[in-house]
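Repro case for the chain-ordering regression, as requested:
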Amino acid sequence: MSDRIAGIVILIFALWYGFGASRLKAGFGSGPIGPKNFPLMLALLLALVAIAIIVTGSSFKPKWPKRENWLDIWLVIASFVAYAYLIVPIGFIAATTLETGLVSQRFGAKWWQALATGFGISVALYALFVWVLGVSLPIGRIFRG
Amino acid sequence: MEVLSLLGQGFAVALQPINILLVFAGALVGTIIGMLPGVGPINAIAILIPITFALGLPAESSIILFAGIYYGSQYGNSISSILLNVPGTASSVVTTFDGYPMAQQGRAGPALAMSAIASFFGGTLSIFFLIFFAPLLSKLAIKFGPAEYFVLMIFAFTALSSLTEGNTLKALASALFGLMLATVGLEPQGTTVRFTFGQLKLYDGLDFVVLVIGFYAVSEVLNILSETQVGGEVRKLTGRVMISLKELTSSLWVMLRSSISGFIIGVMPGAGATIATFIAYSTEKQIVDRNNTFGKGDIRGVAAPESANNSAAVGAFIPMLSLGVPGSGTTAVILATLLSYGITPGPLLMQNNPDIFWGLAASMYVGNFMLLILNLPFVGLFARILLVPRWVLMPIVATLSFVGVYSVNNSAFDILLMTAFGFLGLIMRKTGFPLAPVILGLVLGELMEVNLRRALNYSNGDWSTFFQGPIVIILWVLTLASLLLPLALRRLTKRAKPGKLQGE
Amino acid sequence: MKRFMGAILAIVVWSLAFAQFSPKNTECIAPADPGGGWDFTCRVPAAQVMAELGLIPGSMKVTNMTGGGGGVAYANVVTQRADDENLIIAASTATATRLAQNVFAGFTADNVRWLGAVGADYGVIAVSNDSPYQTLNDLVDAVAAAPGDYVFAGGSAIGGWDHLKVLLVMNEAGVEDLGSVRYVAFDGGGAAMIEVLGGRAAAFTGDISEVLAQVEAGEIRVLGVLSPDRVPALPEVATATEQGYNVIGANWRAFYAPPGISDEAYNFWVDAIKQVAASEEWNTLREQNGLAEFALFGDDFEGFVRDQVAIIHGISEDLGLLQ
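-- result from build under test --
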């Protein structure tokens, strides 16, 4: 049953993608095959595969996580999103300490272990990337005065 | 014999104390960089270029240093793939297929040792190919036009059959999704923008690193979170840390075949090491995987991609040195370095600057040897990383993912993308859609489309161009063989007495 | 307290800057991956030579900001870092081409301040050594007679700079339907050259620095150089102008600065680039990399970029490249 649902989702995706591809305009001098032909081929193929999945079905049973695990998953995902928005304003070290601490705590660390781990990892990686490898990471807008 | 005396001169260059020091430094830095996702050898080399100028290093010494970083990173890449299921680059994705299951079974030691040995095997064997066949192969590279590339991509696509994990339709859907992801961004031929939703950041398409880390590292963290009770158990290392002789001998032919195919694919500019690993893996699965152990922790599944990607890395030097066309991002940077020394790589390089060519070849040999003795003693130490508690290890995986992804484009947007793909990866794992075909599709997508369009542009829309010329025919024969051979082999083994051959 | 100190510091710095701009923690953004032309422009003439000449304190940080053919960096500079006086960004003719074709999501050449150029790579049209064509006239006449039979290979996308160079020459030759001139795009000049060497494409369109090695090896023959005068690297090759096609195609390497910087900072960078362009260090490196002299700074350069953008916009519109 779950495969049939997946098949329907994929079919909708393929149609949406194909619709998007069909509206592309070919530019000047792009030759016999323009920018939309290859995507259209892909959309057609994926639609056929999706229909095949729906028709054949299967006895595949997905193992969905338990409710408390879902809670963990959503929390970690939300923290990743928050991290993306915080890294530039508060800087790499502060953002990473918080984020890494949270992940560590979710994997069973006590809060002080989690914060120490987070801080240790973020400082070590900052040192490695910025000073050794010369990759630039944000210091944080709030520290620039 | 002339080759030998030239090679002797090369070793005279490579064995100068300063150059030995540089190749060692390069190999070490490369290994560390390779272990970190996101940061590739390109970054390190770009940073070092002004320093080598400032130090007044001669051209051959700079190239020796940079080449050391390049293949050092190939060694390092496999370490995080095997231990953490975090491939640092696209070319080490395949190593996770069997390397990570081995680590989970407590056999991280042999997996790491195998990866170092296979890398050495591929790296050194290909140097001999480089020395003896460079002029010949550069002619082959010229013969390789868009039609040939397109059929090569079709051949590479048959690797899909070895990545199905049961349901062929689901694998096909995954692969098509990967191909679709490759179409995001400014189209490769013109100025039409596709599927970017107005995001300027998507104009250059989805970055491999962002996708690979999202699909593998992030979804792995989420997956573990979804399965374990909080706290989780600490993994154990069981059995030997070192590789056994039996494991080594069982992989000998695997490494030889993978090195040869990897090298040839590496020579084609643009095809690259990633495609070489997929082709080597699926070829070996079809030839030696009689008990269906590939993908479940078979050491030969580590040997194949690791010898192939190192061999391809050396192969990529041929078009760079003899044609001035870089076969990969890293060789492009090395090419730029040579240019800034006033050396223009091209057909006359071997004549005009023998020190560069032969010194480089000899130093690659020295460097690979060094990497082997540098890596093997640390296998036990690296394997022990898995004994670190989960609440330390998982944050490290997450943070490495962040830094890796962020540093590619200095863009927080990429972290959002990575998270989205991580979640999608989790859903796909749970619903039984394999992830590897997505990466295969992503790798092949642009090359496939762009060469299809170029070839048809040349032929004015005549599709028969894909069936003309000797190289194209050979590639079609290989494609058919790789589709039909497994069926034939299955029949043969069914007829033969069933017995365990090399199962682990 | 900290804020207060910060404010005082800011006033001090501001008043100093008013007198004379002094750079610190300088940065150059290369809007592409390492290894390409923009990366070179940041790392060699800016980071390396400026530091060697002592024009900037310490070293200059080079950041690679890939995306949108330079568009991501352009948008970032205009919207996020508009008043960063310590920042310069590498640019080239490709930047102008994209600005002219409106590919930078609504940004125009007026959104930044153009500083100056340090060199240029002139365009070439070349063929394989066993090709029957000896001069640009031979080739152009043949193509004009039967455009469907010839394919040009180049390293930029359709509508990009390498493609435009061919169209400009054909336009000069009086070809009416420029859409009939066939062009296949490859990833960089080297890959396009392989097509000519392999006999799949009739001619190559690219820059001088891309052909030198193959010319030296006798594999490739350059039919015309798109420069005002003959170039020292290829003294025996006639310019396109000499052969009757008045086309000059210079792929210049230059820098721009964020729009909101003070005139002092602007003048500082213009002067620094001037000194680089005049230095022996840079001129040696420039020649080694096959770049010709191309010196335009400050207001002159700003005017030049505006004109070029307008010209390319006009051509692109005529050709139907703009949608």
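Ordering looks correct now. Residues 2-56 of chain A form one domain.
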